Amino acid sequence: MEPKKADAAAIAEAVQLLRQGLLVAFPTETVYGLGADASNALAVQGIFAAKGRPADHPLIVHIAEAAMLDDWAVHVPTVARQLAARFWPGPLALVLRKRAAVPAVVTGGQETVALRVPGHPVALQLLHAFGGGIAAPSANRFCRISPTQAAHVAEELGAAVAMILDGGPCQVGVESTIVDLSGMRPRLLRPGHIGVAELEALLQQPLLVPESLDTDIRAPGMMAVHYAPKTQAVCCPSALLSGQVRALLDSGRRVGVLAYQHGLPDNANLHVVPMPASAEGYAQSLYASLRALDALQLTCIFVESPPQTEAWRAVNDRLGKATVPLAAV
Q: Which pTM was predicted?
């Protein structure tokens, strides 16, 4: 499936395909999504089939504006509307109690639904033209590297999707922050571009975070292994990187490195991708860089450990699920 430039004609065609119950991949500011009409249970089942995704894994429903919250959720708390007013359109999904009409396939059989207004002009044009909710996980095979370019979707899903709207590279590059507002206290289910400090400033209370979280709410990205290349990827502290790389090179292996600060010279068996020094730049480049190394059929990909600070929470969350620690090798 060749991507189509996301002009007005392509968006109009995508709307018709969605209304026919077919799948359309489209760009968001985070990653490319694999979309289906969220009110059509049969269409949504097509997402699970295309991705090889287990049926109990819920999807995020993308909507055109915050005013549509009540179409999908009940008992919407004031804080949800405040978060929506502050961060939408943007990379924040809110988990709320669902309306009875929301298909169970969308929510993985749960009584909650995740909703967001994406902050990408193509996604917003598509949603406004469609007029309803679009259920959309990342447009890749289940647990593999999320796509941040239209070409990645074509590589991953091929003819399983009716159309791929090409809106250029994703600017955020990692999936949305997910906050659960269905219980007594707001809970962070998945870190993302919008950080804990920003959320707590609006919430005016501490946010329960994954390290202290025992939740029965399932949400995208909560598996221990996710976002992973086919090639084994190993997270390695900077001080140990040279030695680990050299040991594999000396044994004739082909090695890739996502380098945060370490200077390693390329050679025939070593492929180094220097990564941006900022958390935002690193996140934007992460999946495309991993995907590029994964395509080289290497023995191993080393990921030089980035800082373990709050600003890097989302990046470290994704790396923790895409890699194994050095001790496990």
A: 0.95
Residue 224: CA atoms inside 13 Å, Cβ hemisphere, count? 2
Helices (H), the chain: 8-19, 41-51, 69-72, 78-87, 104-107, 121-130, 150-157, 196-203, 238-250, 279-294, 313-322
Residue of 133, 134, 152 lying closest to 144 (CA atoms): 152
Q: Mind listing the domains of the chain with CATH numbers?
A: 4-212 (3.90.870.10), 233-328 (3.40.50.11030)
pLDDT at residue 266 greater than cutoff 80: no
List the structure tokens of 114: 């995740």
Summarised one tens digit per residue, pLDDT across range 22-54 is: 999 999 999 999 999 999 999 999 999 999 999
Q: What are phi and psi of 153, to 5 degrees?
A: -65, -45
Give the contacts of 256 (CB within 8 A, at least 6 positions apart). Answer: 231, 270, 271, 272, 273, 293, 296, 298, 300, 301, 302
228-254 burial, b at 16+ Cβ within 10 Å, e below that, comes to bbebebbbbeeeebeebbeebbeeeeb
Report the percent of the chain where pLDDT is more than 70.
95
Report the pLDDT value the prediction gives residue 88, as an integer from 0 to 100: 98
What is the phi-psi region of residue 67: left when phi exceeds 0, alpha when psi lies from -120 to 50, beta otherwise? alpha
Half-sphere exposure of 151 (CA within 13 A, CB side): 6
CA 146 to chain centre: 6
The token pair at 19 is 């209304």
pLDDT confidence of residue 216: 64
Kind and range of the H or E run holding 310: none
Alpha-carbon distance 118 to 123, whole Å? Answer: 7
Nearest to 293 by CA among 237, 242, 230, 236: 230
